[in-house]
Amino acid sequence: MAAAVEMTSTFSADSINGRRAPDALVFSIEDYAGYLQLRAFIRPYAAPLNRQERRMAKMKAAIFVGPGRIVLDDKPIPDVGPLDALMRITTTTICGTDVHILKGEYPVAKGLTIGHEPVGVIEKLGSAVKGYAEGQRVIAGAITPSGWSNACLCGTGSQDGAGTPHGWKPMGGWKFGNTIDGCQADYVLVPDAMANLAPVPDGLTDEQVLMCPDIMSTGFGALATR
Length: 226
Ligand SMILES: [Zn+2]
Prior knowledge:
Bound molecules: zinc ion
Low-confidence stretches: 1-27, 40-45
CATH topology: Quinone Oxidoreductase, Chain A, domain 1
Order of helices and strands: HEHHEEEHEEHEHEHH
Strand order of the largest sheet: 7-4-5-6-8
CATH class: Alpha Beta
Shape: globular
């Protein structure tokens, strides 16, 4: 985990406004932005983990612990279910929504990994996922609907209510960094992968597609449903 060593040395306690939590670093929004740039540089050169290493390994994640506090700490690398894909994040960014979360203006559960703009590589595919390959460069949408709820079948996946009595739930389709762990981490688990992954063409860099998971798709979605 050479990347973790790099990160730790970059974010010494001195660089974080003199504050330090017992087991994790507390960092300002400027440090937070710097961290993500650092990760974007480092991750493409990290070797994929084999199955045994992945089961044993921890990953770094930006975790909301309370208003004004997002910490960088260890979490287990998620297990992959039949319909999921485990994505190794190579580039991500901060949305204005993340700043609202940091300020306590938008409530999410303590302990949640934030972030909903993933660009990366498929590390592991669920057994039932077809049409994608491990090692493939992909993005996943910020909104990750199930694809089968009433809302999804009516073309409004952002209101996905899979598992609810009527199949609708306001903003239920937005899950990353809201109701499930998000992508400001070494890895993110993409639910219902066949509905939510998109391949990145070879000629495009991570930075060129970084706005597609959220900003571009939100804009197109707003136009389509207005
Ligand atoms: Zn966003």
